[in-house]
Amino acid sequence: TKSVSPSVIKKSIESYSSTLAKAIAKQKKYPRIAQLRGWQGEMIIDLKIDGQGNLIESKIKKGTKFKVLDTEGMNMVKRASPFPKPPKNLESSVFNVIVPISFKLKQ
After folding, report:
1. What is the mean pLDDT of the segment spanning 22-35?
2. Among 11, 30, 56, 62, which is most buried by a count of CB atoms within 10 Å?
3. In a 10 Å sphere around its CB, with 0-12 CB exposed, 13-18 middle and 19+ buried, how is residue 102 labelled?
4. Do 74 and 7 meet the contact criterion of CB atoms below 8 Å apart?
5. pTM for the full model?
Protein backbone atom coordinates (compact mmCIF):
# COMPACT_ATOMS: atom_id res chain seq x y z
CA THR A 1 0.00 0.00 0.00
CA LYS A 2 1.34 3.42 -0.85
CA SER A 3 1.64 5.83 2.01
CA VAL A 4 -0.60 8.87 2.14
CA SER A 5 1.02 12.23 2.81
CA PRO A 6 0.54 13.73 6.28
CA SER A 7 -1.19 16.80 4.81
CA VAL A 8 -3.78 14.59 3.08
CA ILE A 9 -4.37 12.70 6.33
CA LYS A 10 -4.68 16.00 8.20
CA LYS A 11 -7.31 17.25 5.72
CA SER A 12 -9.25 13.99 6.01
CA ILE A 13 -9.23 14.22 9.78
CA GLU A 14 -10.37 17.86 9.65
CA SER A 15 -13.29 17.11 7.35
CA TYR A 16 -14.17 14.04 9.41
CA SER A 17 -14.06 16.21 12.53
CA SER A 18 -16.83 18.45 11.18
CA THR A 19 -18.88 15.35 10.24
CA LEU A 20 -18.50 14.14 13.83
CA ALA A 21 -19.31 17.54 15.29
CA LYS A 22 -22.63 17.51 13.40
CA ALA A 23 -23.43 13.92 14.40
CA ILE A 24 -22.66 14.64 18.05
CA ALA A 25 -24.57 17.96 18.08
CA LYS A 26 -27.73 16.09 17.01
CA GLN A 27 -27.57 14.21 20.33
CA LYS A 28 -27.70 17.32 22.50
CA LYS A 29 -30.15 17.35 25.38
CA TYR A 30 -29.48 20.68 27.07
CA PRO A 31 -29.53 19.95 30.81
CA ARG A 32 -32.58 21.55 32.42
CA ILE A 33 -30.65 23.03 35.35
CA ALA A 34 -28.19 24.65 32.94
CA GLN A 35 -31.07 26.17 30.98
CA LEU A 36 -32.69 27.53 34.13
CA ARG A 37 -29.45 29.07 35.33
CA GLY A 38 -28.38 30.34 31.92
CA TRP A 39 -25.20 28.23 31.85
CA GLN A 40 -23.44 28.12 28.50
CA GLY A 41 -20.04 27.11 27.30
CA GLU A 42 -17.92 25.35 24.77
CA MET A 43 -15.95 22.21 25.35
CA ILE A 44 -13.35 20.43 23.29
CA ILE A 45 -13.30 16.66 23.27
CA ASP A 46 -10.45 14.47 22.10
CA LEU A 47 -11.79 11.29 20.50
CA LYS A 48 -9.76 8.22 19.65
CA ILE A 49 -11.49 6.39 16.81
CA ASP A 50 -10.73 3.30 14.78
CA GLY A 51 -10.97 3.07 11.00
CA GLN A 52 -14.57 1.84 11.19
CA GLY A 53 -15.83 4.81 13.21
CA ASN A 54 -15.91 3.02 16.55
CA LEU A 55 -15.11 5.10 19.62
CA ILE A 56 -12.10 3.75 21.48
CA GLU A 57 -11.63 6.53 24.00
CA SER A 58 -12.93 10.02 24.68
CA LYS A 59 -11.53 12.65 26.98
CA ILE A 60 -12.19 16.28 27.68
CA LYS A 61 -9.39 18.47 26.36
CA LYS A 62 -11.04 21.68 27.52
CA GLY A 63 -14.19 21.75 29.59
CA THR A 64 -16.93 24.31 30.04
CA LYS A 65 -16.97 25.76 33.52
CA PHE A 66 -19.99 23.61 34.38
CA LYS A 67 -19.76 19.96 35.32
CA VAL A 68 -23.33 19.28 34.18
CA LEU A 69 -22.50 20.52 30.65
CA ASP A 70 -19.25 18.57 30.50
CA THR A 71 -21.10 15.41 31.54
CA GLU A 72 -23.75 15.98 28.89
CA GLY A 73 -21.02 16.53 26.28
CA MET A 74 -19.48 13.16 27.10
CA ASN A 75 -22.93 11.52 27.01
CA MET A 76 -23.61 13.08 23.60
CA VAL A 77 -20.44 11.43 22.31
CA LYS A 78 -21.59 8.05 23.66
CA ARG A 79 -25.06 8.43 22.13
CA ALA A 80 -23.59 9.42 18.76
CA SER A 81 -21.28 6.42 18.50
CA PRO A 82 -20.60 4.35 16.51
CA PHE A 83 -19.83 7.28 14.25
CA PRO A 84 -20.19 7.62 10.48
CA LYS A 85 -17.43 5.75 8.65
CA PRO A 86 -14.19 7.72 8.37
CA PRO A 87 -12.74 8.68 4.96
CA LYS A 88 -11.14 5.82 3.05
CA ASN A 89 -7.55 6.86 3.74
CA LEU A 90 -8.18 6.63 7.50
CA GLU A 91 -9.83 3.22 7.57
CA SER A 92 -6.68 1.26 8.34
CA SER A 93 -5.65 3.38 11.27
CA VAL A 94 -6.58 4.46 14.75
CA PHE A 95 -6.55 8.24 14.98
CA ASN A 96 -7.53 11.14 17.21
CA VAL A 97 -10.06 13.77 16.28
CA ILE A 98 -10.64 16.98 18.19
CA VAL A 99 -14.32 17.91 18.26
CA PRO A 100 -15.83 21.07 19.74
CA ILE A 101 -19.22 20.90 21.44
CA SER A 102 -21.04 24.11 22.06
CA PHE A 103 -23.78 24.78 24.58
CA LYS A 104 -25.56 28.00 23.72
CA LEU A 105 -28.98 29.08 24.84
CA LYS A 106 -31.12 30.64 22.15
CA GLN A 107 -31.66 34.30 22.95
Report:
1. 96
2. 30
3. middle
4. no
5. 0.90
